[in-house]
Amino acid sequence: MTDMAMALNGLDKLAIEVPSWAYGNSGTRFKVFGTPGTPRTIEEKIADAAQVHKLTGLAPAVALHIPWDKVDDYAALNAYAADLGVALGTVNSNTFQDDVYKFGSLTHLDAKVRRQAIDHHFECIDVMDATGSRDLKIWLADGTNYPGQGDIRGRQDRLAQSLQEIYARLGKDQRLVLEYKFFEPAFYHTDVPDWGTSYAHTLALGDKALVCLDTGHHAPGTNIEFIVAQLLRLGKLGSFDFNSRFYADDDLIVGAADPYQLFRIMYEVIRGDGLGPDSGVALMLDQCHNLEEKIPGQIRSVLNVQEMTARALLVDRVALAEAQNEGDVLGANAIFSDAFYTDVRPALAQWRESRGLPGDPLAAFAASGYQKKINDERVGGTQAGWGA
Q1: 337 and 315 in contact (C-beta within 8 Å)?
Q2: Using alpha carbons only, how large is the chain's radius of gyration in Å?
Q3: Which residues of the chain are modeled with pLDDT < 70?
Q4: Which of 190, 292, 302, 367 is the most buried (most CB within 10 A)?
């Protein structure tokens, strides 16, 4: 395997954006659970996110969601975040909660509904202009539940037209990343169900349009690392949404269901030069913590990504290539397996301490008193949450 110290040096490139909505109330389709200390404002969400970065050194940016995180003064919000040691990151649109979008948004038959959805994305770009954010992320709930309910091809045509109008509004250094999900909430067909559909639309749009890959948005058994390798090869992987699922939903802590899959994904990210600020690939969490505490949940997630990245960095790529070239099936697999099964946790604790971070960020958070502080202070008002 690659030398441990040499491998861990590669971790300095790792940065994971955390989502503002992860700190609000969430739950299932049937119930949203309230918890003490839940943020009531975007400022309180950012304060919680800053705790994750303070303790891990891995989460320097916070993704916004519009309209959930709308404020009157984004310059002031930028300054507030900077004072806490984090930046404002990706701006996420929302065309899945207004009644008017019941039968679609950017794909809707009614031009007035499409106009409303396009104008919402223009508003998001205005937020990007004000915050200095690079990426506009679009996830659509658009689709149908029954065969014959809608014109599948016509919906794709309308989607392409809507995306073209949004793309034309982007600034010189701004990007559009199009997320996909193979089902839900539409059950017969989703308008952007897979990486191929997202790739086709972003390829038609231009160089500033890229694919967003959500690790939980695939059918069971999908080889996600192949998709990662292919999109990196094509220069079209713009961002990740890291999470995990066991059955159908996708909001669990990343790596919870299959840490070996996360390891394989991160290996392809590293091999495809997708790690680091200059790679053009944004790594982000996309989670709603249903039962667990929010801040520890985000800490656990970023640490899981870091651990699997460290293991992936241990793969001896020279030895692996030799085994592959010689047709040594078991030898090549053993090189992969040896790296994955290496316990990097003690080395990671030392790595953190050498950078002035706590060796055990979760224990440090528990001992900090921050959770009790916000439980006591955040009384009254309306807790943030996505609703149900």
Answers
A1: no
A2: 21
A3: 1-2, 387-388
A4: 302
Residue with tokens 């921050």: 370
Two tokens, residue 46: 């950012």
Q: Angle at the Cα of 254 (from 17 to 191), degrees rounded to 5?
A: 80
What SS3 class is residue 6? helix
Question: What number of other Cβ atoms are within 10 A of residue 14's Cβ?
Answer: 19
Q: Which element (helix H / strand E) includes 345?
A: helix 345-353
**What kind and span of H or E run contains 239?**
strand 237-242
Render pLDDT for 104-127 as a digit per residue (tens, 0 to 9).
999 999 999 999 999 999 999 999
Distance CA 58, CA 79 (A): 20
Spatial separation of the C-alpha atoms in residues 43 and 80, rounded to whole Å: 8
Between the alpha carbon of residue 235 and those of residues 143, 265, 283, the distances in Å are 28, 16, 16
Task: Provide DSSP, 189-215.
Answer: EESS-SHHHHHHHHHHH-TTEEEEEET
Distances (CA, A) of 158 to 103, 140, 141, 165: 13, 13, 15, 11
Q: What DSSP assignment string belongs to 47-73?
A: HHHHHHHHHHS---EEEEETTTT--S-
